[in-house]
Design a protein that fits this description.
It comes from Paenibacillus odorifer. By secondary structure, the protein is an alpha/beta fold. Helix content is about 55%, strand content about 10%. The structure holds dephospho coenzyme A and adenosine-5'-triphosphate (ATP).
Length: about 200
């Protein structure tokens, strides 16, 4: 069974993934893969530097994430250009990893954490899609605190994604992460039981 896990930025996908991994699931994390393709030596980083200029790199050749984030999250055209460079490689790597995990351990639950699952039209890869939900205001508050962003910067990042209410409507299953961690843990336990994995 392969489950797609998504939600909005800072809605708690990593928090829920970690709880599922604790219960015994295996995880493919699109954010980790997205970081790997932006490491020095990777052709995707080279293409991004060619497109956006050397200013997105530190002198040692590593990506200045804050700089690139500043450029793309306030310019939809630049964001689309970046997506066109990064997404094919990220998508391919996600598929390779989830299918090889499935071959290795066909009975174990595989969770694929993808922030942009709906935006990228990846629904058909999964048996079921779980959305980790919090209301928009809470998303903004948690994002501002975690990434030390201004309200304006946080809103720009949210606006680069599909609205969380729309994602909630598309979900097969919803985990509400707007309460405390214990409340989320309780829901993860119910979800796990429902899959018959206990
Ligand atoms: C622009 C970059 C350098 C900003 O890095 P930064 O460290 O500030 O953010 P980080 O990578 O941790 O992403 C945090 C969250 O931002 C959101 N986000 C990231 N990229 C995008 C995007 N292209 N479109 C919409 N939301 C995005 C996601 O919810 C993600 O979980 C980085 O996000 C990047 O390389 N993005 C392109 C690759 C990509 O699309 N990744 C997204 C998921 S696969
Ligand atoms: N139930 C909760 N109560 C309070 N804070 C929480 C809760 N769940 C998550 N957080 C905090 O909110 C922030 C966002 O959570 P998390 O990193 O899991 O979100 P995410 O969806 O994986 O984010 P991203 O889209 O950026 O990858 C973190 O700082 C986390 O510690």
């Amino acid at each position: 069974m392969i489950i797609g896990l998504t939600g909005g930025i800072a809605s708690g996908k990593s928090t829920v993934s970690a709880l599922l991994v604790n219960k015994g699931a295996r995880l493919v994390d699109a954010d980790v893969i997205a970081r790997e393709v932006m490491l020095p030596g990777h052709e995707v980083l080279a293409a991004a530097a060619k497109q956006f200029g050397k200013e997105i790199l530190f002198p040692d050749g590593t990506l200045n994430r804050a700089k690139l984030g500043e450029i793309v999250f306030q310019d939809p055209v630049a964001l689309q250009t970046l997506n066109n460079l990064t997404h094919p490689a990220i998508r391919q790597e996600i598929k390779d990893r989830m299918y090889s995990m499935e071959q290795e351990e066909p009975k174990r639950l595989i969770i694929v954490d993808i922030p942009l699952l709906f935006e990228s039209g990846l629904e058909t890869l999964f048996h079921e899609i779980v959305v980790v939900y919090v209301p928009r205001e809470m998303q903004i508050a948690r994002l501002m605190e975690r990434n030390r962003l201004s309200l304006e910067e946080a809103e720009a990042r949210l606006n680069a994604q599909m609205d969380i209410e729309q994602k909630r409507n598309k979900a097969d299953y919803i985990i509400d992460n707007s309460g405390d961690l214990a409340y989320t843990e309780q829901q993860v336990a119910v979800f796990w039981d429902r899959l018959g994995l206990s």
